[in-house]
Specification:
heterodimer, A: 738 residues, alpha+beta, Phosphoribosyl-aminoimidazole Synthetase, Chain A, domain 2, 25 helices, B: 232 residues, alpha/beta, Rossmann fold, nine-stranded mixed sheet, 5 helices, 24% strand, globular, nucleotide-binding (chain B), EC 6.3.5.3 (chain B), Phosphoribosylformylglycinamidine synthase subunit PurQ (chain B)
């Protein structure tokens, strides 16, 4: 068969439309020694765009710590795999679906959830939990309400129907997301350590099988869209957003796990970004094999689809597999039982070529390694971010009293209750949700117990903007702290790095500094990165988002009896603050919300103190000494205390700020490595002694009891009324009655 | 006790139901594929689990109600056999004509997953003997279309025959439609068939079974069933 004649001609305009730079196109022409066909141009644009190739980020991602005694599979596969003992592994990853969600929030967010669930069950794991991290524009922006409603409904619509509990996440607002929201979805699954499945194909001449839903024209060029800035025409890109079918995904899950159990699968790769192209190339390239596809066999939803369209379609709920010799019929029977399409669409070869045939013509014939794992990579120029000055308490003025400030903070868009959001997610299905949304971390039992997994997503974008290195460290430290606060041993993270245009040195500088910060913290906290995703070009009309490296952390709890919650348990218990307080107001929620100033350096993260203080708190939980634990983060100490009170309905009487400490800095400073812990009455002195022996800063700051939050020299606040403010901001904003 | 849990494409709480039956009654439930024509021999309880059978396409439960196995379920019910439909199972029972009425979209048009209070309307059925009449129990809901409704005559008949199993209640036991999770008429959360051998309910008692996980008010329903079927 001959290569098809080159119509249309490949013009510079066509190359640009495919998101390839002229020098990248020249490199490609040199590589193949001739002008590419239009299908080949489509294929290379899909493989070499930022989203699939990580060409701007790879060189920095390699600096992250990715190994550890529990790590079975680090980055590079569909998801990370970490040993949790008893022959079981936790499989997890987080991925963004930012651009599609801005254009069409319901389908964009839903297919984001679908994509990440598929990444997890492709590895042979049954999904047991989903989380997310969402960022929207400021609440006065006209689009925010519609985007929030659509994204939340989309996440729920997909996850609820698929049947995975959505157990945690975060929602934040800032004007810098006005034109570019963030939807980061994380999935966590459970597999047997000796039944993990990988993408790398093995064996020449084996059948490559297409499974799942049919291929349509949806999502063509989705990955290319995700690799460019938005202009004013963002809304016109709606046809590139895929449409999700969670029902098909549920069937695909059950069918895939069933054929894996039956020993039919040699290699498996889901069709995510750039669909058939990316999955086929990755299977071949990772396995050092060639792949030949025959598109005549691809199940299509529409008639007359061209090779170009089939290769670039991002229709959802599809998988590609290499089937074990002689197992084709058994695999097909299982898929037919679940009502899914099953078609042999190609085979592996020993040529290291990626060959695509359609209607008797060769539409593409390309070197597979250079498309896949040997794609171009760049060391882009970057500027070190300029350090910001420290803000001293004496620089901060407000007319609000401490009580006023607390009321404003807990009813602010970022710190208010997100119940309106998570009640739209089924967080109880599968019957293993021990700690629901609203705590420091979600806790999900492993099978019938006693083990459990803790999970959380964290990042403080205003810190990353103010100081990307400390901000990167803080995102990791906060995830580690949240897992610790529920009694878990943090074991590994997935990262979802959302930034602006990497071709701008100042944006690349933010990226580099954040990655360095993440690396430093993961190293110090023995918290390796096992999977992740990079989302660049989050800009609209030249304005970048806040740098937002979301960290998804997973921790292990050996025995459910040793978990902890943040609500006060009884009256009369001493309230202890663990960790050192300098009163750091720079880049704080207090400064932003109450003083309307977004200034100053972010709080420094002392990783040695983080580890020491956290290990101490975890031991208090394991020894059964702590009765409630909460990490101190956004909004500082008083917000943490208020959250503990609101979760329980029990009040707290607080002591004065220490001598010489500015009260605002004491109550609202965001110094890191801190926890609030309560212990049974009468045990305070002993715990303080123990902490001092361990070199852990500790002090008694109050006592639980009553129905009010009492701050010295200020009006007391009834916990119920505080809770009412906390709970009602979002429903009122969304125009709901409850 | 020989329970059978029916698995439709898109069912997703079948394992939750299996676990609840196993833990509370010690039974080993059989999971039965929708395309089968017969129930396992000796089946004395059929459970239609929660989920999104057939993706909720067309109407919730409409396609599942026409599955092969439903003929056998209908025959089982006609013989007086016990049938429990939870959430999507309730929707399927209504679509299959085994229970009157229909479940439409929640009044607030959003999916809702939260704990609710249910008032147990009668404690003399095979499903509720372990509860007290009027008892308030904590059970979670998780649905987008749980708003029970029917024509006036049907509602009058159900009410007149005492066929309401559970109602969404306030902590003071009062029923307030606007306060419930979905706007169901008369706060109806679950209803019985004429002979009280078929129960459909939106809330999920199967998720409130184990103290390690949370409240255990759902146990009573499975204890009742185990008791009723042991006696028989």
């Amino acid at each position: 068969m001959n290569l098809i004649p080159n119509t249309p001609r490949i013009t510079p305009e066509l190359v640009a439309e495919h998101g390839l730079k002229p020098e990248e196109y020249d490199h490609f022409v040199k590589l193949i020694g001739r002008e590419p066909t239009i299908t080949e141009l489509g294929i290379v644009s899909a493989m070499w765009n930022e989203h699939c190739s990580y060409k701007s980020s790879k060189v920095w991602l390699r600096t992250l710590p990715t190994t550890g005694k529990r790590v079975i599979q680090g980055p590079g596969e569909n998801a990370g795999v970490v040993d949790i003992g008893d022959g079981l592994a936790v499989v997890f990853k987080m991925e963004s679906h930012n651009h599609p969600s801005f254009i069409e929030p319901y389908q964009g967010a839903g297919t984001g959830v679908g994509g990440i669930l598929r990444d997890v069950f492709t590895m042979g794991a049954r999904p047991i939990a989903a989380l997310n991290a969402l960022r929207f524009g400021d609440c006065h922006n006209l689009k925010t309400r519609r985007l929030l409603a659509g994204v939340v409904a989309g996440i729920g619509g997909y996850g609820n129907s698929f049947g995975v509990p959505t157990v945690g996440g975060s929602v934040g607002f800032h004007k810098r997301y006005n034109g570019n929201i963030l939807v980061n979805a994380m999935a966590v699954g459970l597999a047997k350590t000796d039944e993990i499945f990988y993408a790398a194909a093995t064996g020449v001449g084996r059948a490559i099988v297409y499974l799942g839903s049919k291929t349509g024209r949806d999502g063509i060029h989705g990955a290319t869209m995700a690799s460019a800035e938005f202009g004013a025409d963002a809304e016109e890109k709606r046809p590139t957003v895929q449409v999700g079918d969670p029902f098909a995904e549920k069937l695909l899950l059950e069918a895939c796990l069933e054929i894996m159990q039956a020993g039919c699968v040699v290699a498996i790769q889901d069709m995510g970004a750039a669909g058939l192209t990316c999955s086929a190339v990755e299977m071949g390239a990772k396995g050092d094999l060639g792949v030949e596809l025959n598109l005549d066999a691809v199940p299509c939803r529409e008639t007359g689809m061209t090779a170009y369209e089939m290769m670039l379609s991002e229709s959802q709920e599809r998988m590609l597999m290499v089937i074990a010799d002689g197992k084709e019929a058994e695999a097909e029977a299982i898929f037919k039982k679940w009502g899914l399409d099953f078609a042999i669409v190609g085979h592996t070869t020993d040529t290291l070529r990626f060959v695509v045939k359609h209607k008797g013509l060769v539409e593409a014939d390309l070197p597979i390694k250079e498309l896949g794992d040997e794609a171009p990579e760049y060391r882009r120029p970057y500027e070190e971010p300029a350090p910001r000055p420290e803000i001293l308490p004496s620089d901060v003025r407000t007319t609000a009293s401490v009580a006023d400030a607390l009321e404003r903070l807990i009813a602010s868009p970022d710190l208010c209750s997100k119940r309106w959001v998570w009640e739209q997610y089924d967080h109880l299905i599968l019957g293993n949700t021990v700690q629901r949304p609203g705590g420091d971390a979600a806790v999900v039992r492993v099978n019938d117990g006693p083990k459990a997994l803790a999970m959380t997503t964290d990042v403080t974008p205003r810190y990353c903007e103010a100081g990307p290195f400390e901000g990167g460290k803080q995102a990791v430290a906060e995830a580690w702290r949240n897992l610790t606060a529920v009694g878990a041993t943090p074991i590994a993270v997935t990262d979802n790095l959302n930034f602006g245009n990497p071709e701008k040195p100042e944006i690349m500088g933010q990226f580099v500094a954040c990655v360095k910060g993440i690396g430093a913290a993961c190293e110090a906290l023995d918290f390796p990165v096992v999977s992740g995703n990079v989302s660049l070009y989050n800009e609209t009309n030249g304005k970048a988002i806040l740098p937002t490296p979301t960290i998804g952390g997973v921790g292990l709890i050996e025995d459910l009896d040793q978990t902890m919650t943040l609500n006060f348990k009884a009256a009369g218990e001493p309230v202890l603050l663990i960790g050192k307080t300098k009163g750091w107001l720079g880049a704080s929620a207090f400064l932003a919300t109450v003083c309307e100033r977004e200034e100053g350096a972010p709080p420094p993260v002392d990783l040695i103190a983080e580890k020491r203080n956290g290990d101490f708190v975890r031991n208090l939980i394991r020894d059964g000494v702590a009765t409630a634990v909460h990490d101190v983060s956004d909004g500082g100490l008083l917000v943490a205390l208020a959250e503990m009170a609101m979760a329980s309905g029990i009040g707290v009487s607080l002591e004065d700020a220490p001598d010489g400490m500015d009260p605002y800095a004491w109550w609202f400073g965001e110094d890191q490595a801190r926890y609030v812990v309560t212990v049974a009455s009468g045990q305070g002195a002993e715990v303080i002694h123990k902490a001092e022996m361990a070199g852990v800063p500790i002090m008694k700051i109050g006592k639980t009891g009553g129905d009010r939050l009492i701050v010295p020299d200020d009006r007391s606040i009834v916990v119920e009324s505080l809770k009412d403010r906390h709970e009602t901001w979002l429903p009122i904003y969304m125009g709901a009655s409850s | 006790m020989k329970p059978a849990v029916i698995l439709f494409p898109g069912s997703n709480r079948e394992q939750d139901a299996v676990r609840a039956l196993r833990l509370v009654s010690g039974a080993k439930p059989q999971v039965v594929w929708h395309a089968e024509h017969e129930l396992p021999k000796g089946t004395d309880l059929v459970v239609l689990p929660g989920g999104f059978s057939y993706g909720d396409y067309l109407r919730c439960g409409a396609i599942a109600a026409r599955a092969n196995i439903m003929e056998a379920v209908r025959a089982h019910a006609a013989r007086g056999g016990l049938v429990l439909g939870i959430c999507n199972g309730f929707q399927i029972l209504c679509e299959a004509g085994l229970l009157p009425g229909v479940l439409v979209r929640n009044a607030r048009l959003r999916f809702v997953c939260r704990e609710v209070l249910l008032r147990v309307e009668r404690a003399d059925t095979p499903f509720t003997k372990a509860y007290r009449k009027g008892e308030l129990i904590r059970i979670p809901v998780a649905h987008g279309e749980g708003n029970y409704t029917a024509d006036e005559a049907t509602i009058a008949r159900i009410e007149g025959e005492g066929r309401v199993a559970f109602r969404y209640a306030r902590p003071d036991s009062r029923i307030d439609e606007t306060d419930g999770p979905n706007g169901a008429i008369n706060g109806i959360a679950g209803i019985y068939s004429e002979k009280f051998n078929v129960l459909g309910m939106m809330p999920h008692p199967e998720n409130y079974i184990e103290p390690e996980i949370g409240p255990t008010d759902g146990r009573g329903l499975f204890e009742s069933l185990a008791g009723a079927l042991k006696a028989a």
